[in-house]
């Protein structure tokens, strides 16, 4: 109990530290807006909207999907190493092509639905006649269960995105294929949803055959440039003190309460998020902030974060590095050998942006060049576009998903004929041209 107290106290301290740093960094750029006295004289429509947003902040993903009139299902999948994962599904019509969506770090399946049916990707795909399956990685709020391990114990949390790649994704993909009777599925990932995918394809290459195409949104893979990130050093120091634990409880109710206390604390909280992912007020739907607070962070193991920090510091996309002795034992080398991106033979289309503090364009382009079968890359034509805008931006459909639908459409009727995809060499020319149209 005492430990728990200290624990929360530490989290609060970190939170204040981040807020303060952010305030200090952002101070010079603050634009004073007139305070608007909402609340008292809100119209019935505004009140209904506020209530609906409040509701969206606590509904689980399946309930959210059902609320907006789509057929929702919940499925449980058990991995080879015993983790029990929850998948959410927006069931498509008979014979609809399965489309698998995998979330990023501290996120869950919620990331693909919370902005609602007019914005979020899961609904767009459902409207385009796909059978949409939403994965949940081990450790997040929907996948906090195991056949033998206790999620409140230390052993449960001994994993990073390496295990998500070699166990969770294969288990979920096999489950979807078995349930639907399809041989292959479409895949899109955001951030760590790409990282884990590339781990899977390089470590278990037989899974390349099960995926038609990969849409990689803000792929966090190479991260040399991220070393310049203002918070990485602080986060690194913080995580070095945690061994094999969950950081789900990191932002508990105090945090949510603080963030919604006043206009000003809300603004500071949003600035804190921007400090990590990149600043873009224009695309941020502030009305939806309570919903974001309700669904993030969804739970993550400290080792996942530490593993990313290793990638940043070593400049190598490689498995987790332990002590030299343990590395010798596990990998037969002093340092773990890099993942082999050439072995990723799924045709991959990449979406990235200039103001993404976690995936620098230079890193994304370096990764793209190393992929086994890149078929195009698209730099979002808005220079402030940040890491979370790929899911949250007000205009994400126009700025990102419209292109994705074009790419999917282009290969749709020929999806069983691999020879229609450009070869890696072609891909850097015709389709790839950064902001050219696909056609
Ligand atoms: C989606 O957009 C339509 C048309 O603009 C609007 O009528 C509807 O209320 C919107 N739905 C939501 C959930 O915002
Ligand atoms: C965890 O999984 C077990 C075995 O399937 C199940 O009996 C139990 O209800 C699950 N626990 C939670 C919290 O979902
Ligand atoms: C990487 O994968 C490619 C394609 O499967 C293979 O030809 C190459 O030898 C691999 N490289 C290493 C270092 O294992
Ligand atoms: C695949 O597409 C290529 C080029 O369009 C064509 O030559 C080939 O016959 C096709 N193969 C099959 C099995 O449809």
UniProtKB/TrEMBL annotation:
Residues 62-115 form the Partial AB-hydrolase lipase domain. Residues 45-54, 426-439 have a biased composition (Basic and acidic residues). Residues 33-54, 418-439 are annotated as: Disordered. Residues 1-28 form the signal peptide. Keywords: Glycoprotein, Hydrolase, Lipid degradation, Lipid metabolism, Signal. GO terms for biological process: lipid catabolic process. The keyword Lipid metabolism applies. InterPro entries: AB_hydrolase_fold (IPR029058), AB_hydrolase_lipase (IPR006693), Lipase_euk (IPR025483). The active site is at 191 (nucleophile), 356 (charge relay system), 387 (charge relay system). Belongs to the AB hydrolase superfamily. Lipase family. This is Lipase. It comes from Stomoxys calcitrans.
């Amino acid at each position: 109990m005492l430990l728990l107290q200290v624990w929360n106290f530490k989290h609060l301290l970190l939170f204040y530290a981040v807020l303060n740093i952010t305030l200090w960094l952002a101070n010079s750029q603050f634009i004073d807006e007139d305070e608007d006295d909402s609340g008292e004289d809100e119209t019935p429509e505004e009140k209904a909207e506020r209530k609906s947003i409040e509701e969206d902040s606590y509904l689980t993903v399946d309930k959210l999907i059902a609320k907006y009139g789509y057929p929702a299902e919940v499925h449980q999948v058990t991995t080879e190493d015993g983790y029990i994962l929850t998948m959410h599904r927006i069931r498509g019509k008979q014979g609809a092509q399965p489309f698998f969506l995998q979330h990023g770090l501290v996120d869950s399946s919620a990331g693909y639905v919370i902005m609602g049916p007019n914005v979020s990707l899961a609904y767009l795909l459902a409207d385009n006649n796909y059978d949409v399956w939403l994965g949940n990685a081990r450790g997040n709020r929907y996948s906090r269960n195991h056949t033998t391990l206790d999620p409140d114990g230390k052993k449960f949390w001994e994993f990073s995105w390496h295990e998500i790649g070699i166990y969770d994704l294969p288990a979920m993909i096999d489950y979807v294929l078995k349930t639907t009777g399809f041989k292959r599925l479409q895949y899109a990932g955001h951030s760590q949803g790409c990282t884990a995918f590339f781990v899977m394809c390089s470590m278990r290459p037989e899974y390349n055959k099960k995926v038609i195409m990969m849409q990689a949104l803000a792929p966090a893979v190479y991260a040399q440039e991220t070393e310049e990130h203002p918070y990485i050093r602080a986060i690194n120091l913080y995580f070095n003190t945690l061994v094999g634990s969950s950081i789900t409880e990191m932002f508990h109710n105090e945090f949510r309460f603080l963030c919604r206390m006043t206009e000003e604390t809300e603004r500071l909280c949003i600035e804190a998020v921007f400090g990590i992912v990149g600043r873009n007020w224009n695309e941020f739907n502030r009305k939806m902030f309570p919903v974001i607070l309700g669904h993030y962070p969804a739970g993550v193991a400290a080792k996942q974060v530490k593993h990313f920090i290793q990638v940043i510091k070593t400049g190598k996309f490689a498995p987790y590095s332990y002590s030299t002795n343990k590395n010798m034992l596990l990998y037969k080398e002093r340092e773990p050998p890099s993942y082999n991106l050439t072995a990723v033979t799924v045709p991959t289309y990449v979406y990235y942006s200039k103001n993404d503090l976690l995936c620098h364009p230079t890193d994304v382009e370096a990764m793209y060049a190393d992929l086994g079968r890149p078929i195009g890359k698209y730099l979002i034509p808005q220079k402030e576009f940040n890491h979370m805008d790929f899911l949250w931006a007000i205009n994400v459909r126009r700025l990102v998903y419209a292109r994705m639908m074009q790419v999917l459409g282009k290969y749709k009727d020929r999806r069983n004929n691999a020879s229609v995809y450009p070869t890696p060499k072609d891909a850097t020319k015709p389709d790839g041209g950064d902001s050219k149209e696909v056609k």
